[in-house]
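Reagents: none. Just compute today. Sugar ABC transporter permease.
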Amino acid sequence: MKNRFSAGRLTVYIVAYGLVAFMLIPIIWMFWVSFKPINSVVTVISELLTPPYGVESYIRVQESSMIWRWTLNSVIVGIVQTASTLLLSSLAAFAISRIAFKGKTFIFLLILAGLMVPVEATIVPLYELIVRFGWVNSYPALILPGIALPLGVLILKQFYDAIPNDLMEAAKIDGANLLRIWWSIFLPLSRTSMAALAIFVFVQSWNNFLWPLLVANDQSMMTLPVAIPTFQSSFTVDLTVPMAANVLASIPALIFFLIFQKQIIKGIAMTGIK
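Predicted 3D structure written out:
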C-alpha cells in the first residue's frame, strides 16, 4: 500500500513538474532571445545557445519606444481601477446585505444579471458615451467603465451575510452610524476577501486589451497589452527587440505574482476561475 502510494505520488510530482517546465519554456526562450544581438538568428537552437550576448536590444527598446510611459499607464489604470472597484463593491454589498430598503431584492437580482451580460455587448454603448464626454485618450476612459464589477458585489455580500448581526447591533448601541459600522467592522473583517478581489481586479485590468485598444489611440495613453503588439509590428523580421520589450513589460507582473502568489491562488479558489 505504501509503495502504491509512493509510486502514485511520484507520478503526480513528475507530471506536475513536467507541466511547469513546459510552461516555463516560452518564458525562458523570451529572456534568452532578448539578450542576443539585434538581427540574430534565434530560430536555430545552436545559434541561440552560442554567444555573443548583450543588452543592445534593451537599449533599442528604450530609445525607440515609450515603454516606461506604457508601464506607468498600466500601473495607474490598474491601481485606480482596483481601488475604485473595491470601494463601490464593498459599499454596494454592505447596503444589500445589511440595510433594509424597498426594492433591495430587485436591485440585487439586477446586479446578478450583469454577470450574464458579455463584455462585448456593452462595448458600443460605452464607447459612444466616452466619445460624447470627450474622454477618448484619457485616464477616465480607461478606468471608469471597469469599476462596476457585479462579481465583486456578489463575493463581498456573501461574506457580509456571514458576519453576526450582534456586532452591528452593538455598534448601533454605541452610537455608530451605518458608514462608521461599515468602516470599523465590516471592512476589517473582510480583509482577506478584499485582498483576493483586489488581486483579481488588478490582474484583469492589467491584461485588458479590447477596451484600451478602442479608447487609447494616442501612443502616450496606451497600456502595455495594446502598446507592445503595436511596437512589435514594426519589427517583422527581428525578434530580439520585441522580446526585450516583452521582458520589460513582464517584470512588474512577475514581481506582483511573486509577492502575492498565495492571495492569487486564494482569489482563484474564491471566484471559481479555471
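The chain has a mean pLDDT of 85.
Action item: order primers for follow-up constructs.
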